[in-house]
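Q: I have 141 residues here and want to know how they pack in 3D. Can you give me a structure?
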Amino acid sequence: MNSFQRALLCFMTTGALFLAGMNANAAEIGTLCWSIDNGNLMRFSVSNPGPNHYTYTGVFTDTDNATFAIVGDIEIQGNALIGSFSGSKSTATLFKTGIWQVTLDSTLKGTAEGIVQIYDRTALTVTTGYKLHTVTPTTCP
């Protein structure tokens, strides 16, 4: 094993131990769902790794019935929750990725605004767009 391979192995091992330690300390709160104004549903598993800080992973099904895998963080700032998430999905014809900013009030209602890029595999083109949605907490199915 050369020095580069040893350094890479050490880095990967340290990172895995760090992530394992973080996950062991994060208390899972449960699953939460939000209805989006375009009719989609976001579903998140939420954890609390520290004071006023929450992490979440989840999915939502887009209007073309492809599922986005998403991950994000949120902080409590006064009476608001501010955070972001990113996600991507892939279909036979499209690859879509988005970066979103989320602002929620104390009732967990708010907005999600994001930049979305779509790569069309057939046309070999990339388009970028801005989106703004209202999100409302709802019962998970």
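Q: Anything worth noting?
A: The first strand starts at residue 27 and ends at 36. The chain has one domain: 27-138.
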